[in-house]
Fold:
Amino acid sequence: MCGIAGYMGSGNAISIITSILLELQHRGQEAAGIAVATRDGSIHRVVGKGLVVEALSYENLYLLYNLDGIVGGIGHVRYSTSGGYLDSQAQPIVVGDNSLKIAVAFNGTIANYASLAKAFGFGNVNGDAKLLSMLLYRLAKELGNDVVEALKILPMYVVGGYSIAVLTSEPRVVVAKDPHGFRPLSISFANNELYIASETAALEIASPYPWREVLPGEIISFDGRSLEQTKSPISRFVSPCVFEYVYFSRPDSVFNGVNIYVSRVRMGEELAKEVPTNGDVVIPVPDSGRAAAIGFSKVSGIPIEEGIVVNKYVGRGFIAPPTMRDFISRFKYGFVKDVVNGKRIVLVDDSIVRGTTMRNIVRRLREIGAREVHVRVASPPFRYPCFMGIDVASRDELIAWRLMDLDDIARAIEADSVGYNSVQGLRKAVGIPLLCYACFTGLYPFRGLDVDALEKSFVR
Structure:
């Protein structure tokens, strides 16, 4: 999962793009970057490791601030789903020659990138971001340096999901979403200014104009004078990622017309109906479990309390590099003893993926006096890897795949009980008919490809 940003217009592109990236920081913590285009057809890039304030400090952006004639640019915050965690895959990635140069920032995963690299003679390509950039450039060159036409046929080649922003040396900014519509992407346009962000919440803050979501398969191009909209002729089964509603997106964002916060409260309401339990207090796992805990409390009548305090400076454990996840899960949370001591706790979280964080939380609640801990999860058991933008490499990482029985999962996380929402409950909570539930069901929206074939094809 990543966040992409962009701007073209008469404003300060660097400042605007940096502001949008700060609003998208929750989507990636490993690296950040900006690429800008100037009137003479040049593209300049600055990337760095870490958070936006580290990677895009004034010192790092000094080169860009001294450029003349900047007309627009794109930006990116990185969460790795392929390639190494400390490699050169920081985006935007710039490829091209004197006749056409492009910078690419994308959110998603190209599951078949290794086979595409071989088929197109690119050699060993370290990660899908690099492959996607090279492939898009190759297709554009073959189509008369036309990036829009290249994006129209891109779905013919890739397996996976992408929302993408492309900056060209014309200069031009182009955004597109794959025909499945897996990942969020929105624009705000008026008065010859185009703002781009992965999530609507960022545009609410950064843009003075109304926003709209980019549709599945849609391609939008802006050269500073006219906005052009078209669509890929390649149709696919529309299947937005349900995990955006469960965890990734900000609660103040909208995805496919559905407010994320409202859908999460409904998840908690459905959860309380499907797997009720007795307890003295509902405690959310902050921050992503809070809305579901509110819904659970509403339906169950059990009062909600903030018994866990999150250290916001540690970061999101799920999207942290693997070597840091256990450290983050142990040091991310503090606990309010007066809320916990002597109580039967209903602990509500958005999901359990690997189980590391939940086990540490349950253990700590018991240490400070919880009588019982009943874990309730707003989503179904996470049993299958994602090949569309979530960093879960294989089923072996997933506690619900290794332990199919709920009692075994409860023992593994040291809880008195564990209960999950059903797929039907999740569908009801989100309220739209077409969603991708592959991480819960193992049913992927790629014709002829199951989990075994996808795991064999994808190299992380």
In short: Confidence is low (pLDDT under 50) at residues 83-88. The radius of gyration is 22 Å. DSSP finds 18 helices and 21 strands in the chain.
